[in-house]
């Protein structure tokens, strides 16, 4: 075959291979995506939303633009969830815990001490069980694109160090608007008070509540160290965030546009987890430098908390369905080397 013929054949093959991608790019129409989130712009959540926005704009040739709107400017999680369901807002990222009123299976992720470490969390959340729970959102008008890391949650308060659960007696502890968190901290003896995240700093500042529980990253980025003296390390639950899309809007996108968002979501998940873990690794030192008094709750005392919360776990199994509960426990046993 002479040179010219070979070149023509090569060009034809290259053109055929490139055609689907070229068609994909041509299929993408202009979209402005309102993406709401609850923490401030300097937080790990804000950084990851900006990363997602850059990925989407790059992959769509600038046609799909994401307007990142932080600090709960579009309302608390529950309000944004309703805006997505109604089609008045396109995207958000927020806590899975505030989704339980819409999709009861999300309560699985509220289970105290469910995950021992981030590796277990990633494996379950990114595996078939996480997908199964996320898919349940679709019948309620939401599409879950990826789980991000909020992180392992720890206690702060303005009254005293918490060295055992009895120290929670008499402490007005803000919890997320979620029955498992409410039941868990009432069971441990605290006066648990559900509040939206957007009201938390003021509630701490005015002593409406004495304490709260959140991952280190949030304690730092929301400057809770300015109004909280004590940080007591419990790692009592691993808390995921989830990226959500309005299904009304999603269903109107073509495959090329949906692929841009799905690919960017996965890339932003990996970015966010890396960024969050790097920040969390030095957070205790940072919080001490900001004046917080930090204590690690002894392992034996954390075990007593865990034992005291067994009945809360039983309730979760019933509410999410024992099949899902047992499947998760079996998957974790396998991850830990058991049968
Ligand atoms: O919008 C903020 C929420 O996404 C999340 O941070 C929830 O951990 C949370 C809390 O304590 O409200």
Helix and strand topology:
Layout: H1 3-27, E1 31-37, H2 44-59, E2 64-69, H3 77-86, E3 91-95, H4 118-125, H5 128-135, E4 142-152, E5 154-157, E6 172-175, H6 179-187, E7 191-194, H7 200-205, E8 211-214, H8 216-221, E9 230-233, E10 238-246, H9 247-250, H10 255-281, H11 283-289, E11 293-296, H12 299-308, H13 310-320, H14 322-335
Parallel strand pairs: 1-2, 1-3, 6-7, 9-11
Antiparallel strand pairs: 3-10, 4-10, 5-8, 5-9
The protein binds 2-keto-3-deoxygluconate.
| Uncertain residue segments | none
Radius of gyration: 22 Å
Structural class: alpha/beta
- Mean pLDDT, rounded to whole units? 94
Overall body shape? globular
What's the CATH superfamily, by name?
Answer: Bacterial extracellular solute-binding protein, family 7
Main CATH class: Alpha Beta
**Total domains:** 1
CATH level-3 fold name? D-Maltodextrin-Binding Protein, domain 2
N-to-C CA distance: 60 Å
SSE topology string:
HEHEHEHHEEEHEHEHEEHHHEHHH
Report the sheet-strand fraction.
15-25%
Q: What is the number of strand segments? A: 11
Largest sheet, in brief, is: 5 strands, mixed
Strand order of the largest sheet: 2-1-3-10-4
Tell me briefly what this model is.
This protein is of the alpha/beta class and 339 residues long. The protein is 47% helix and 18% strand. The chain is globular, with a radius of gyration of 22 Å.
Explained architecture:
This protein is α/β, with parallel strands linked by helices. It has a single domain (28-335), classed as Bacterial extracellular solute-binding protein, family 7 (D-Maltodextrin-Binding Protein, domain 2). The protein is 47% helix and 18% strand. The chain contains 14 helices and eleven strands. The chain has helices at 3-27, 44-59, 77-86, 118-125, 128-135, 179-187, 200-205, 216-221, 247-250, 255-281, 283-289, 299-308, 310-320, 322-335, and strands at residues 31-37, 64-69, 91-95, 142-152, 154-157, 172-175, 191-194, 211-214, 230-233, 238-246, 293-296. The protein has a five-stranded mixed β-sheet, with helices on both faces. Strand 1, helix 2 (44-59) and strand 2 form a beta-alpha-beta unit. It is globular. The termini are far apart. The model has no long low-confidence stretch (mean pLDDT 94). It binds 2-keto-3-deoxygluconate. 2-keto-3-deoxygluconate is lined by residues 38-39, 77, 94-95, 150, 176, 197, 214, 218, 239, 241.
């Amino acid at each position: 075959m002479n040179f010219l013929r070979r070149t023509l054949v090569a060009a034809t093959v290259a053109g055929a291979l490139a055609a689907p991608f070229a068609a994909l790019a041509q299929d993408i129409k202009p979209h402005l995506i309102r993406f709401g989130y609850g923490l401030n712009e300097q937080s790990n959540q804000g950084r990851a939303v900006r990363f997602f926005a850059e990925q989407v704009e790059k992959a769509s040739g600038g046609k799909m633009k994401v307007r990142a709107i932080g600090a709960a400017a579009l309302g608390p999680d529950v309000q944004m969830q309703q805006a997505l369901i109604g089609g008045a807002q396109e995207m958000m990222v927020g806590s899975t815990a505030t989704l339980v009123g819409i999709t009861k299976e999300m309560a699985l992720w509220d289970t105290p001490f469910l995950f021992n470490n981030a590796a277990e969390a990633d494996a379950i959340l990114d595996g078939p069980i996480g997908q199964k729970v996320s898919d349940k959102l679709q019948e309620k008008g939401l599409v879950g694109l990826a789980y991000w890391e909020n992180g392992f949650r720890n206690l702060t308060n303005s009254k005293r160090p918490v060295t055992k659960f009895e120290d929670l007696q008499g402490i007005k502890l803000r919890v997320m608007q979620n029955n498992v968190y409410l039941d868990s901290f009432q069971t441990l003896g605290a006066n648990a008070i559900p509040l939206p995240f957007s009201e938390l700093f003021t509630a701490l500042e005015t002593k409406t509540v004495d304490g709260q529980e959140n991952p280190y990253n949030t304690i730092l980025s929301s400057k809770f160290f300015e109004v909280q003296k004590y940080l007591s390390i419990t790692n009592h639950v691993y808390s995921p965030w989830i990226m959500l899309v309005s299904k009304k809007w999603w269903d109107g996108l073509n495959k090329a546009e949906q692929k841009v968002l799905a690919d960017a979501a996965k890339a932003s998940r990996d970015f966010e987890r890396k960024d969050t873990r790097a920040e969390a690794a030095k957070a205790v030192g940072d919080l001490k430098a900001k004046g917080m008094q930090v204590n690690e709750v002894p392992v034996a005392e954390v075990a007593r908390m865990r034992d005291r919360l067994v009945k809360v776990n039983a309730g979760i199994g019933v509410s999410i369905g024992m099949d899902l509960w047992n499947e998760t426990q079996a998957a974790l046993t396998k991850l830990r080397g058991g049968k």
